[in-house]
Amino acid sequence: MTQAKVQAALQRAAQIGGAAQEITPAEAVTETDNGTLWRYQSDHDGKRPPLLIIYSLVNRPAILDLRAERSVIARLIQNGFDVHLLAWKPPGQARRYLGLADYILGDIADAVRWLHRASGEAPHILGVCQGGVLALSYAATSMGQGARSLTLLATPIDTGSDSDRLAQLARAIDFNALIRATGNVPGQGLAGLFASLKPFALGLQRYSELAELADADDQAIDTFMRMERWMYDGPDLAGQAFAEFAEQIYQNNALARGVLELDGEQVHLSNVRCPVFNAYALDDHLVPPDAACGLGQRITGPCEEHPAPGGHLGLFISTRAHQVLYPALSDWLHDLA
Amino acid sequence: MACDDANATPGTGWIEWLSWLRSGMDPLSVGRLLERCAKALNDAHTPADACERVVVAIDEERAQQQTGLAQFDQLLSQWCDTLRQIAPVLPDTPTTDLPVLGAYPQRQARLTALGKESEAYQKALAEHFESVTTLAEDCIAAFRDDLAAQPESDATQDTAIPPERLVARWSSVAEPRYEAWLDDPKTQARLGALVNAWSALASTLRALADDCLETLGLPSSRGLDDLADELQRQRRRQRQETAELRAEIAQLRAQIDGGKS
């Protein structure tokens, strides 16, 4: 690693910068109160089953479409699905009191209803990380029977284990006091917190590998910068929803314990009757396997569990996930038809 | 007010602001007198202590007064006597330990809270830094041992270890220690205490800033919170009413469909 190589890599990274446009083109088809429903373009003709992606409120969904050959979205389109994404709008201060119920019973229910009406059939729902919790909670309410199937990727369900570092760190924090002070929770601050859980891999090691990019093609540098932006340029979170999530999911383990309430309605996982495909990473430091596994024993419908080697991000961008996991998911979804 | 400022750095704020009076425009040395008194108040820890320090400050300034200001000197002397009388009856405990008495109780309560919360935050921050420092020292010592134990072939006096290998070795030494530190319940409790202390301090600072803005008739974060809360109530009510209407429509559709069959 020479200084000249690092300098060259930095200069190229600054020039390329990580383009703002997404890899797979999409058009906005409707708005919900707090989100935009995007439909991804496809070359496929004919009717395709609608699939709705619910992403996390933390970070942006760009990780699902970071580069063409490792794009979860492109993979699902290639496999014949009519892919839609509910992209959350960052809340301003006027929406600091948005709660989980607003997102789950409002936006997700509206998006599912819209897709059902537009396509004439119930959509498959795919929830990613925290978005998986939102999707699972939706499926566990009286409204949630509108889902044809549910796919969960790296979704924390039972946060009661000692291996759940986020849950352990959350235990002693008064989240209501925190949001009284902050209003909404700054996304960039939250990104710093996540990075601080793996400061060596995401800091020193990641940046020391930058020199190797000096001789790499533009796409590699573009991907590096896209990842950089994805990691650190997260949207702000509505304060109330953040506090509810931290308290209910991480402090009270409310989803697993069956004590989560949305607008007075109990969210019981046993209400989930649709088929579920639950994938998680075996070395995930954010959502450890203990937190994600074992859903089959909690729900009423059939459940397939897919543990995958690697870490949190590997579930979305690793070669293995794209060679093994996503083909398996596509086969599973098609078999439901 | 002396105790509310007990944690502030002496010599800042009012003292700086008053420095412009240090000129020929101040023949009575009122500016210097105020400056001395402000410093005395900054340094005080209790109301009684503040009173005594102000007396000393006035006496010191009197000693430096130019001649020909007999009336002013007499006034200051009387003021010192009065303060000396008052000092023994004032409480000799920090104001954070005193009840809220008299006018502007909310402001008093916030200032009292600010003192306590500032102290709690600094304590939590100091404990966290101490813990981080201990971790860093532990990692550095282990890294030093690791480098010392390296095979001769890795580094001689003539050949330096390549930076990327140093990075890899530092990570292999420090990362498990950092993760163990992060998983330690004591670390988690310290981090929780730090976040909670910051939340309390920031909320009080926010409330004090809001007081100032509202006094000037300007929008405050408290006012914006009220609006956001009201919007949220309306949003929730609308969502619930829409859900009820949908359920009613579905029920009517079912009745119509039932009637048809």
List keywords for this structure.
heterodimer, A: 337 residues, alpha/beta, 8-stranded mixed beta sheet, two-stranded antiparallel ribbon, globular, B: 261 residues, mainly alpha, 8 helices, 73% helix, flat, disordered N terminus
Which secondary structure elements does this structure contain, and how are they paired or packed?
The complex is a heterodimer of chains A (337) and B (261).
Chain A: H1 3-16, E1 26-31, E2 35-40, E3 50-54, H2 72-78, E4 82-88, H3 100-119, E5 124-128, H4 130-139, E6 149-153, H5 165-170, H6 175-182, H7 187-197, H8 199-208, H9 218-232, H10 239-251, H11 254-257, E7 260-262, E8 265-267, E9 276-281, H12 289-292, E10 303-308, H13 314-317, H14 319-336
Parallel strand pairs in A: 3-4, 3-5, 5-6, 6-9, 9-10
Antiparallel strand pairs in A: 1-2, 2-4, 7-8
Chain B: H1 14-18, H2 30-43, H3 47-64, H4 70-86, H5 105-148, H6 163-183, H7 185-215, H8 221-260
Helix pairs in contact in B: 2-3, 3-4, 5-6, 5-7
